Q: What sequence folds into this?
């Protein structure tokens, strides 16, 4: 296992060398001294005059991208533009605290700037393109799998480091190291005369131990005979193979790794990256992106030594030499995979053991974050009549300001002239957005009865929700508890995926299911939306809230949860999925004040009609 | 004094940046996306291209590459809407004034990026700030829609575009005319462009009305076979190390596509669609139950553009079947959840109608 703090320091050094080329770093850690220490290290690695900008989550477009400078425009009498934060950060870093809550729109603007190195301003009468070659530091303070920085940005950044497991003491140990070896993390980049190994000293000790050092050296010697170009190409192939072995699907992974290898080479004073640089890049860039464990070396058909022996090229036979080329590639990969394996986060295995990790939960926060951005907060402004909304004073003045000179010609006086077309109203997101929460009973009894049919009904309702552009959320309860399978989202693709991956079996923890559904519904309502609950169950609770089996206690708990739900006043529909309508289900529906529908009698169309009517009433 | 590490630009330097683009011909794979973009370049009336798919599949790269590849077009000198000198747009306020003595020049086909943070005044055009402030004149400053006339309007992350901007686009894309009524101005000008959108379905669904405006919809996925993946990364890596040299190496290939495009455009006018192909298109649409005639029309136009691009003498069933998935997959009256299924359904219908 490599040392995360050591790696983090090395990452800081690499980012400082070429912030825009690396994209940046996703730092998963809570706010605290360890993260501060890392940020300070990063800052020290940068030239003092390099820009360093903090991006507040709720930043408006005029500060992010740029726009008209109101004060300067008024005093100068001509349009004066104002640089946005992204343009100001050109050549430096943009630091995003609480990146897990970054709205999707802001993330997309950042992504566009990262891709092109420029920021396009098409706002308020200005049209310009400004350089914005910055690196991005996403400070992800999320807890648990669900809370993550937007993937659209994370995948554009070369590095992901996790400092949650690093203790404050660890950082001190290495700080004293740093004092004793000035080449490591020095402020200025190493001079070319510094021996190549000096720059790599920090990062490579860990993996080198686990590698066959002699094979590496042999390989290095062999590559030295080839051209620099050749070794670069070889490295690219190796990185692609490693990415495939680690299940890194997006090609940005190997591409960023190739860039990092070059940067590492440059830091070491070399013109072209050598094997050690490639290995380091795989370890730092690809390993943290792994979605599966690479096959172990014992599984590989080729022992690593073999290609080195075979490497004497046979010029007479083109086929054979191509073949041996392939084998050297394989050998390099294996070493690279080996290094990457050593750096795979410990948690990955646990995650993998829990079944295939869907992409959905990762991206799931995007929907939720976007929802929180519309929580009655002003979302820009629009022209309109002040009688029909709240006046946005600054925006109105901004709209009126440019025309003052023109208007003064029409009349007289030195006051600011505001005309009806200047008036801007604050735009709030509509409160009528409906979120349909599906609480699906996936217990053993339901599976027996008809989970498949219930799924079918949900799918139909999802289709309806799509047409109305509603959001949907999915809560499933089975076994000993309930979970939010899908946070409120508008992505039907994800909803569908969540639903089809829903396993069945186990007891019926009805109370827990209702509790979770109620919580979700309340959070939707807090966010300014209108929740509607659709409950699909047979109503036969047999797991109490505490997780203990027992019908009597479970039934009482469920009725209690139903009463708590009723108190919220949220509309609900109760679909009885049992083969024969149950009295217990009917009672529960009554306790929830929910409309009761028995699936045997309700064909799919009737169900969707009922839900639609409910949504309209709720508005 | 500290030395600035290489790669860190001087923040106080001028903001002029020259950006080279990754050559279109150097894109590995993604045939469906490339074909759709080229078809839209051959015949802009097909109505736009929507590219939806995984991250990091070169969606933006392909569209920016296409911009560099397109043959130049003749335009009226001084016309803010780049009107065709042979046939100026009817509503063009500039060319209507200067009738009779039009001078033309060659300009690159506009490929205009609509950035997400754009404000409405810059999209549709507004009063010219500079002139209003300094000279006190009322003058119209054309916006992005004006600049995109006769070219392409590209929206990355189209599903994140503000709703009020989408409304604007829907109207203009349908009529080809941009009407501006604001700040005391009343202007109508031509805005006929090929709408190109890209996005990731995981970020959210596209409004059905906007979906319908696109003629072709393509799905892109990350290549899964290793040699292709290596090739993609290798080329990208080579490009990043030496953009100028890399572009020079592909200049010839780009030039070949450019020639093919020019030839296709002239051929398009003479290419007629035989009754047999028209009937096949109608049968295919009937089988799939697509709404209205728009599907058939697009299918016919795209098949014709494809035939023209490939230099075929006639529009055959083969062209039709190859383009059918892109032209029809977003028009099916379908279960909206069945995102992956729509491609399969088109393939099934093609097999049903034309035999295996």
A:
């Amino acid at each position: 296992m490599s040392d995360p703090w050591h790696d983090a320091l090395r990452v800081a050094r690499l980012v400082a060398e070429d912030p825009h080329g690396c994209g940046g770093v996703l730092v998963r850690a809570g706010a605290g001294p360890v993260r501060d220490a890392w940020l300070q290290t990063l800052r020290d690695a940068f030239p003092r005059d390099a820009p360093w900008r903090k991006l507040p989550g709720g930043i408006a477009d005029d500060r992010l991208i740029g726009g008209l400078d109101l004060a300067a425009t008024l005093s100068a009498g001509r349009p004066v533009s104002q640089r946005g934060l992204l343009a100001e950060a050109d050549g430096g870093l943009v630091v995003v605290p609480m990146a897990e809550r970054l709205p999707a729109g802001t993330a997309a603007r950042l992504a566009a700037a990262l891709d092109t190195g420029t920021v396009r301003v098409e706002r308020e009468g200005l049209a310009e393109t400004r350089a914005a070659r910055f690196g991005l530091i996403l400070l992800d303070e999320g807890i648990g799998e669900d809370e993550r920085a937007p993937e659209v940005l994370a995948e554009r950044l070369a590095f992901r480091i996790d400092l949650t497991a690093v203790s404050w003491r660890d950082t001190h140990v290495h700080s004293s190291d740093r004092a004793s070896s000035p080449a490591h993390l020095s402020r200025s980049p190493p001079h070319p005369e510094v021996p190549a190994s000096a720059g790599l000293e920090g990062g490579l000790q860990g993996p080198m131990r686990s590698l066959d050092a002699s094979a590496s050296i042999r390989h290095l010697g062999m590559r030295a005979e080839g051209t620099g170009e050749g070794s670069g190409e070889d490295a690219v192939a190796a990185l692609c193979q490693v990415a495939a072995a680690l299940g890194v699907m997006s090609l940005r992974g190997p591409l960023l790794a190739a860039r990092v290898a070059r940067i590492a080479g440059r830091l070491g004073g070399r013109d072209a990256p050598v094997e050690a640089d490639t290995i380091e890049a795989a370890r730092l860039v690809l390993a943290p992106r792994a979605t599966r464990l690479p096959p172990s070396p014992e599984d590989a058909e080729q022992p690593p030594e073999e290609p080195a022996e075979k490497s004497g090229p046979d010029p007479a036979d083109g086929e054979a030499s191509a073949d041996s080329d392939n084998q050297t590639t394989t050998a390099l990969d294996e070493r690279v995979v080996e290094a990457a394996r050593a750096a795979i986060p410990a948690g990955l295995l646990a995650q993998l053991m829990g079944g295939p990790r869907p992409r959905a939960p990762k991206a799931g926060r995007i929907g939720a974050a976007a929802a929180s951005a519309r929580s009655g907060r002003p979302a820009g402004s629009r022209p309109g009549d002040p009688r029909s909304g709240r006046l946005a004073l600054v925006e109105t003045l901004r709209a009126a300001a440019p025309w003052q000179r023109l208007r003064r010609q029409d009349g007289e006086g030195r006051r600011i002239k505001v005309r009806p077309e200047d008036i801007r109203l604050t735009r709030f997101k509509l409160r009528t957005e409906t979120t349909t929460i599906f609480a699906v009973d996936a217990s053993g009894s339901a599976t027996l009865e008809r989970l498949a049919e219930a799924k079918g009904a949900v799918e139909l309702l999802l289709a309806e929700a799509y047409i109305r552009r509603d959001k949907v959320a999915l809560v499933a309860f089975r076994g000993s508890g309930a979970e939010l399978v899908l946070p409120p989202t508008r992505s039907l693709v994800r909803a569908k995926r969540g639903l089809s991956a829903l396993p069945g079996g186990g007891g019926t923890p009805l109370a827990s299911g209702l509790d979770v559904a109620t919580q979700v519904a309340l959070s939707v309502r807090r966010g300014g939306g209108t929740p509607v609950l659709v409950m699909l169950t047979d109503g036969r609770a047999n797991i109490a809230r505490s997780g203990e089996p027992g019908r009597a206690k479970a039934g009482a708990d469920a009725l209690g949860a139903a009463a708590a739900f009723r108190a919220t006043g949220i509309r609900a529909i109760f679909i009885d999925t049992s083969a024969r309508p149950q009295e217990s289900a009917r009672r529960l529906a009554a306790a929830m004040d929910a409309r009761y529908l028995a699936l045997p009698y309700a064909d799919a169309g009737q169900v969707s009609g009922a839900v639609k009517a409910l949504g309209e009433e709720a508005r | 004094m500290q030395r600035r590490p290489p790669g860190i630009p001087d923040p106080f330097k001028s903001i002029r940046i020259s950006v080279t683009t990754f050559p279109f011909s150097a894109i590995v794979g993604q045939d469906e996306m490339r074909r759709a973009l080229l078809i839209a370049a051959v015949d802009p009336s097909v109505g736009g291209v929507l590219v939806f798919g995984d991250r990091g599949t070169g969606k933006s790269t392909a569209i920016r590459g296409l911009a560099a590849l397109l043959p130049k077009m003749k335009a009226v000198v001084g016309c803010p809407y780049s009107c065709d000198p042979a046939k100026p747009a009817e509503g063009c306020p500039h060319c209507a004034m200067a009738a009779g003595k039009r001078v033309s020049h060659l300009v690159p086909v506009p490929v205009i990026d609509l950035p997400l943070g754009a404000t409405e005044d810059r999209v549709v055009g507004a009063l010219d700030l500079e002139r209003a402030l300094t000279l006190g004149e009322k003058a119209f400053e054309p916006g992005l829609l004006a600049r995109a006339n006769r070219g392409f309007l590209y929206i990355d992350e189209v599903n994140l575009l503000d709703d009020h901007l989408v409304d604007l686009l829907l109207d203009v894309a349908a009529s080809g005319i941009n009407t501006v009524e604001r700040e005391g101005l009343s202007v109508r000008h031509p805005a006929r462009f090929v709408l190109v959108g890209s996005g990731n379905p995981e970020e959210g669904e596209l409004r059905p009305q906007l979906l319908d405006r696109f003629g072709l919809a393509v799905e892109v996925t990350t290549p899964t076979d290793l040699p292709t993946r290596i090739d993609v990364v290798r080329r990208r890596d080579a490009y990043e190390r030496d953009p100028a040299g890399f572009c020079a190496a592909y200049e010839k290939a780009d030039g070949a596509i450019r020639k093919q495009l020019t030839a296709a455009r002239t051929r398009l006018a003479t290419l007629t669609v035989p009754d047999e192909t028209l009937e096949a298109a109608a049968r295919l649409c009937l089988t799939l139950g697509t709404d209205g005639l728009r599907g058939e029309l697009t299918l016919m136009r795209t098949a014709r553009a494809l035939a023209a691009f490939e230099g075929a003498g006639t529009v055959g069933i083969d062209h039709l079947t190859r383009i059918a998935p892109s032209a029809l997959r977003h028009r099916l009256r379908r279960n909206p959840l069945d995102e992956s299924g729509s491609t399969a359904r088109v393939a099934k219908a093609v097999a049903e109608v034309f035999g295996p």
About this structure: Residues 125 and 143 of chain B are 4 Å apart (CA to CA). The domain at 275-354 of chain B is CATH 1.10.8.80 (Helicase, Ruva Protein; domain 3). Residues 243-270 of chain B form the longest helix (28 residues).
